[in-house]
Amino acid sequence: MPKISSYPQIASVSNDDLFVVSDDSKNDATKSMTVEQLVSYVGTRAVKVGDIVDPAEAGNAGTFRYREVGNNSYIDLAMRTGASSYAWINIVQNNW
User: Fold this and answer.
1) What does R_g of the chain's alpha carbons equal in angstroms?
2) What ranges in the chain are assigned the alpha helix state H?
3) Which of 5, 48, 68, 88 could covalently link to 76 via disulfide, CB atoms 3.0 to 4.6 Å apart?
4) What's the whole-model pTM score?
């Protein structure tokens, strides 16, 4: 499954930014991509969402995270909940 990352983390994206895409199904082969290439790439593939342990804040508002606890899995979304507050809001929960 491809993983997309940038270093350092950036709050906004311009056409000059580069992202690194690695694919664990291809022995973590990596490739640098421009914003336009990344948009095209993501538009034709699934994107894996990982577990983010950082608190919800302005910098990650709109970010999805996937997490597992015991026999439960969750998809959460970082959302603004007040004038200056943010929280991880659970979108869906699965139990097995």
Assistant:
1) 15
2) 35-42
3) 88
4) 0.56
Tokens found for residue 33: 């991509």
pLDDT tens, 43-91? 666 667 778 888 999 888 888 888 999 999 999 988 999 999 999 999 9
At residue 96 the predicted structure's pLDDT band, cuts being 50, 70 and 90, is: very high
* Tokens read off for 52: 């983010």
Q: Which of 5, 7, 2 is nearest to 24 (CA)?
A: 2
pLDDT tens per residue across span 74-86: 999 889 999 999 9
For residue 64, give every residue at least 6 positions away whose Cβ sits within 8 Å of its Cβ, in sequence order, or none.
Answer: 49, 75, 76, 77, 91
Tell me if 80 sits within 8 A of 57, measured CB to CB: no
